[in-house]
Amino acid sequence: MSKNIFVYVEAAEGKAKNVGLEILTPARVAADGGEVTAVVIGNGVEEAAKQAIAFGADKVIAVDDAQYATYNTDTYANALVELVKKYNPNAVFVGATPDGKDFAPVAAAKLGSGCVANVTGVAVEDGKIVYTSPVYAGAILNDAVCESDVEFAVLRSGAFKKAEPDEAKAGEIIAEPITCAADAIRAKVVDVVKEISETVNLEEADVIVAGGRGVGSAENFAILKELADALGGVIGATRAPIEAGWISRAYQIGQSGKSVAPKLYIACGISGATQHVAGITGADYIVAINKDEDASIFDIANVGIVGNLLEVVPVLTAEVKKLKG
Ligand SMILES: Cc1cc2nc3c(=O)[nH]c(=O)nc-3n(C[C@H](O)[C@H](O)[C@H](O)COP(=O)(O)OP(=O)(O)OC[C@H]3O[C@@H](n4cnc5c(N)ncnc54)[C@H](O)[C@@H]3O)c2cc1C
Questions:
Q1: What is the DSSP code (8-state) at residue 252?
Q2: Is it the case that residue 38 has pLDDT exceeding 70?
Q3: Average pLDDT, whole number, for the chain?
Q4: Fewest Cβ atoms closer than 10 Å to its Cβ: which of 228, 271, 275, 322?
Q5: For 199, left (φ over 0), alpha (ψ -120 to 50), or beta?
Q6: Using an 8 Å Cβ cutoff, are 124 and 34 in contact?
Q7: pLDDT tens across 42-100, in order?
């Protein structure tokens, strides 16, 4: 039975965040021949709306007002609730960003609905959407179905692949002038402080040079940073160097860190533990550098280099710089 699916496509500075575009893909699976409608909320979201169409939405509902310039749980949840009441989708998919994780369950509760968290897989069985989420630190994959009239799911970033964009694709953009009554806004945002976790934008990066215990020290991360800079990317890390105090937790990739989906992932001195690999399943191309030829990271790498990263990485950086002229 086909379904109509809402996908909240979060915008930052007018542009769609990757996760919103990624989750259009499982929404198409869940729709099972039905319609996928992107919902964008913000102030100046026209470009994000067009991106949603290019990446696979059939149409977009845009709630564009100065009231949404800064994220606020009450205003965003209210807008989503009003849209669900008006359009009656079967399910609402929201990306697991800090904002998404905050307002999706609030909107679901206001509608008396369920909300499945941390979803990494979506399938349809016997006409029902089945949501897969890792539980017990990833030891078990739990399948859940939701019995509400409209079901909410928060989907993990990096777990699904974006479609190839089709810039020529046409789709209707419906403007919905919803605003939230002042007395319904309980939380007042007085200031927005960009903490380090927001400035490390691993989820959006096309290139990540990640370091593990094999990097050996905080200082050696500078070698990785040079390669990342030369490639226009960012650095990331396994849990081991974070626990050693070499780099901040904002850089952690893996099951208890961030899920990433870069075009290129360079793993330096990383053994390939399942808890780390769980966070890089969305990477297109993996290059691994490890001095142990039996390291399990080589099992998932597209290219493996057996060697000392402290020697290999500077050579790669010099070659990249040479190629770029
Ligand atoms: C509940 C739970 C959640 C977890 N969540 C996460 C998570 O989110 N992310 C995560 O990363 N981990 C996580 N872990 C930890 C995980 O199990 C591993 O311990 C961790 O990923 C190992 O990190 P590593 O590969 O850097 O270190 P190691 O496993 O110690 O590997 C270091 C590698 O570096 C190589 N090496 C050493 N020196 C060099 C050199 N000079 N040049 C080249 N190679 C070299 C070695 O051969 C080795 O393969 C979690 C664990 C648990 C129990």
A1: B
A2: yes
A3: 94
A4: 322
A5: alpha
A6: no
A7: 999 999 999 999 999 999 999 999 999 999 999 999 999 999 999 999 999 999 999 99
Give the start-end residues of each E strand in 164-310: 172-175, 207-211, 234-237, 264-268, 285-290, 303-306
In the reported structure, the alpha carbon of residue 5 is separated from the centroid of ligand 1 by a whole-number distance in angstroms of 39
For ligand 1, atom 14, the nearest C-alpha belongs to 275
Instruction: Give the pLDDT confidence score for residue 248 in this predicted structure.
Output: 93
Residue in the structure block whose two tokens are 């850089």: 251
**Residue 294 in tokens:** 């039996």
Question: Among all chains, which residue has been given the structure tokens 């992932």?
Answer: 265
The CB of 53 under 6 Å from ligand 1? The reply is no
**Which atom of ligand 1 is closest in space to residue 270's alpha carbon?**
25
Two tokens at 88?
Answer: 């009656």
**Which of 242, 256, 259, 280 to probe ligand 1 with, by most ligand atoms within 8 A of CB?**
256
What tokens does 137 get?
A: 């630190």
Backbone angles phi, psi at 134, to 5 degrees: -75, 135
Q: 121: CA distance to ligand 1 center in Å?
A: 25
213 Cβ inside 6 Å of ligand 1: yes
For the CA of 241, the closest atom of ligand 1 is 26
Q: How far is CA 309 from CA 105, 191, 221, 238, 316, in A?
A: 44, 42, 11, 15, 10
Alpha-carbon span 16 to 246, nearest angstrom:
32
pTM score of the predicted model: 0.76
**Is the beta carbon of 273 within 6 A of some atom in ligand 1?**
yes
Nearest CA to ligand 1 atom 28: 271
266/262 Cα distance (integer angstroms):
10
Q: How far is CA 9 from CA 66, 168, 268, 271, 319, in A?
A: 18, 19, 33, 35, 38
